[in-house]
Each structure stands twice: as structure tokens, then as C-alpha cells.
Specification:
Elements: H1 2-6, H2 10-23, H3 25-44, E1 51-57, E2 67-73, H4 79-148, H5 153-187
Antiparallel strand pairs: 1-2
Length: 192
């Protein structure tokens, strides 16, 4: 699978890290929240919208003329205020960028720990497969010896217990490996 193949090459690890950065749901939501906050800060530092007001006065009795007045207005804050808002936005962007980078590093560190554990488990599974194979060969050998009458039933049962124990350990390690692969998949945003 992807995680096993990725665990054995530096290039595979880099690709997995890139996939995690690109597809991690937590990082994506954090990035969207940061972008929304920066957008709000940019909107806050703009001139107010232009307003058009109209005034219509009824004709006066003496003159009989109609009077209409239009007014265009726009609010403008003190110029220094725009500079202060811009500096605040830049500082906030820097802070949010650091928060994102910190979260990204935490997630990649977690992925690296899972990958190291996955490599370790893979090696352990290989060893356990070999032990399982040897234990099975032992059982077959002990069964032949028991049929010949060279050993008692207790020795045969001990060999079978050792083989069952090795099968259990192998199954346990396989389940643990599958669990790590699920955790890595979650870090990738559920992507295979």
C-alpha cells in the first residue's frame, strides 16, 4: 500500500509529507480561517462606500419653483489611522502565518513518528513471519516424532502452543500496522 511503499524511501517520505500538507483537513481549515481573517482586516482598512443622498423640496408658494438637491459623500478617517490599521494587519498576518507553520510542523512531526513506527513494525513483522514459519516447521517435525513414538504428547502440545503464540504476535503486529496506516491516512485527509 501507499504507506508501506512510502516508508522505505526518502523520496516516498517527501511525497507523503507533500500529500499531508496538501490534503490535511485541519491545515486546510486553518488556512481558510486565516485567509478569511486577513480579508476582513483588509476590508476594514478601506474608505467607506460613497453615499448619494437626494433631497426634493416641494414647490414654494411664492416662487413656484421646484428645488432638488443632491449630495455625494464619503467618510474618510484620519490618514494616520489607515497606516496603523495596515501595520496591525501585517503583524496579524505574520502571527497567523507562524500559527499555521507551527501547526504544519506538528502534523508533519506526527506523520514522521507514525512512519518511523511503521518501518519498525514492518521489520518486526518480517522477523515474526520467520519465527512463525520456524514454529510451524517445529510442529510438523514434532508431529512426525510423536507418530514414531519418540516424544510424548506434552512436548507436541508445547510446540503447538509456541506456534499459536507466534501466530498471535504476528496478527497483533499486523493489526498495529493497519492502525498506523489508518492514522497516516487520516493525516492525509482520508486520501489513499
Amino acid at each position: 500500500s501507499l504507506c508501506i511503499s512510502a516508508a522505505f524511501g526518502e523520496e516516498g517520505w517527501s511525497n507523503l509529507y507533500s500529500d499531508i500538507e496538501e490534503n490535511n483537513l485541519e491545515l486546510q481549515s486553518l488556512e481558510q480561517r486565516i485567509q478569511a481573517e486577513i480579508f476582513d482586516l483588509k476590508l476594514e482598512n478601506q474608505f467607506d462606500n460613497i453615499q448619494l443622498d437626494g433631497l426634493y423640496l416641494l414647490p414654494m408658494q411664492e416662487s413656484g419653483t421646484k428645488y432638488t438637491e443632491f449630495q455625494i459623500s464619503q467618510g474618510v478617517d484620519f490618514p494616520l489611522l489607515y497606516q496603523v490599521r495596515k501595520e496591525h494587519r501585517l503583524l496579524t498576518e505574520k502571527k497567523l502565518s507562524q500559527v499555521y507553520e507551527s501547526k504544519r510542523k506538528d502534523i508533519l512531526w506526527e506523520a514522521e513518528q507514525h512512519l518511523i513506527e511503521l518501518v519498525y513494525l514492518h521489520k518486526k513483522i518480517e522477523i515474526e513471519k520467520e519465527r512463525n514459519h520456524r514454529a510451524k516447521q517445529n510442529v510438523l517435525h514434532f508431529e512426525q516424532l510423536w507418530e514414531l513414538g519418540s516424544i510424548d504428547k506434552l512436548s507436541l502440545n508445547k510446540a503447538k502452543l509456541v506456534w499459536l503464540h507466534e501466530q498471535f504476535l504476528l496478527e497483533e503486529l499486523t493489526v498495529e500496522r493497519e492502525h498506523l496506516m489508518v492514522l497516516l491516512q487520516e493525516l492525509q485527509g482520508g486520501k489513499e
